[in-house]
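Open question from group meeting: does this chain pack into something compact, or does most of it stay loose? Before anyone orders reagents, we agreed to write out a predicted structure and look at it together. Recording both the input and the output here so the notebook holds the full record.
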Amino acid sequence: MLVSLCMIAYNESEALDGLFRDIHLQDFPHNQIEVVFVDSMSTDNTREKMERFKNTDYGFRNVSIVQCTKKNQAFSWNAALMTAKGDIIIRVDAHARIPRNFVSRNVYNINQGEYVVGGGRPNITSNVSSWKLTLLAAEDSLFGSSVASYRRPATQKEYLDSLFHAAYRREVIQEVGGFNENLGRTEDNEFHYRIRMAGYKLCCCPDIISYQHSRNNLKDMIRQKYSNGRWIGLTLSECPGCLSYFHFAPFAFVMMLIICSIIAAMGFPIILYILLLVYGMFDIVNAVGCFTMKNVQPQFILLPFIFPILHISYGIGTIVGLLQIPFWQRKIRNSSAKAHIEKVKRKVAKNTVH
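Structure tokens returned:
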């Protein structure tokens, strides 16, 4: 059995050292692992670090480096899929850290009869400081980030709508094809939606875990939330079935805030007061809940202000995305993204190792 461990990167030089160390320490036989790196037009020394890894003899079956001509994440992941030759294809993000048994536990669960597996993916931070731990607490909180089960360590085997660092049997990719290159940020939601529509289940396993570096400053976190929200809005016109009601909670909050503010300006402020009171109660309760976490910091006192900033950023992003739908649809009308999905199917089938 051959396993393809795939990773894409754009200007991720600072994050790669830890991940590369994790990859070469994997306890699964290295002669049964091929590593596929995709460099998405990096301008730092990301490519050089990939080359250095390739030229170091870690005993892997093969190490491939693909130079991608676009910064689009879906395009880069498709390049990885078309290069991979493994019976099992594992996707790992450049901002990740993985334990020694990450590959072996994915392979084990696939061999138990599953077709797509993954595990919990909690957040971590690097170069620890009080402020970074505060942002990490906001990202880890259900209120501040997401209710998605895979964002926290799995406690039991369960089937989810999506996974983060997932492993796929080759035949799954052969059937559903690659990622939709029209999408950004939500390409994995749509990809996993097609997998579910094809009849496959996405299994979250308690013995699989990986970690994702959270944003280390508030400005980057706000930018990330805004971009996530914008792509939720745009994706509604492309694949509404791959989204849940929870994706639109910040949008609903911002819209209610706008409507209630207008009503308040007309002389009826009570509705706005009620909205702020209800939100404030959830805000304070969740902020207090963060004080039960490990590594509590004095700056946690700022969480009641951080939470609404993140929610409003996400909600505004969704509003912008919804308003941009007509222009975006015209832009992608003649896109070859759907045809490229079929191209990935054919390429993955051709690369099958017997």
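Observations to bring back to the group:
The longest helix spans residues 303-332.
The radius of gyration is 21 Å.
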